[in-house]
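Notebook entry, structure prediction.
Reason for the run: the old model in the group folder had no record of what sequence produced it. Starting over properly, with the input documented here first.
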Amino acid sequence: MQWAMELESPKITSTNVEPCRDTIAPCLMFNVRVEGFDAGRGIYIPVDGALYSDDEKFLTRIILDKVSFSGTSFPPQIIVDYGEKYPRDLKHTLILGGKALLDPKSINYIEERRRINKYHRVELKLKIRFIVLYSTVHHPDDI
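New structure, fully documented this time:
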């Protein structure tokens, strides 16, 4: 049995954050590109996310509303567990989109952190929780 700790960790390679334009409440919209998922060893499925301040204070939950894969010629679920039988580059990229609704208390805390910062910048930390599904696929020649 494989454990998640054995897998090479994917890396966030780009993020885009902007204010939501289609909401009444204050909201931030995120687009995140995560590269380096090994489709031959398991399927990463994003479960949920959270937004934290630079001092690790929880601000709000992230609502994931866009999940797409790229980088392989097949959907990742088709090639799970073929990594050792067919050695090839099975890395793929996951593109996530989500929204974070901010309440007045969170906005005030973000502004407080901005005032404290020497350059009047705000650093927000996005944490995304995944589950990894493993599958055993047998090639017809193995049966």
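Summary: The chain has one helix and six strands.
The old model has been moved to the deprecated folder.
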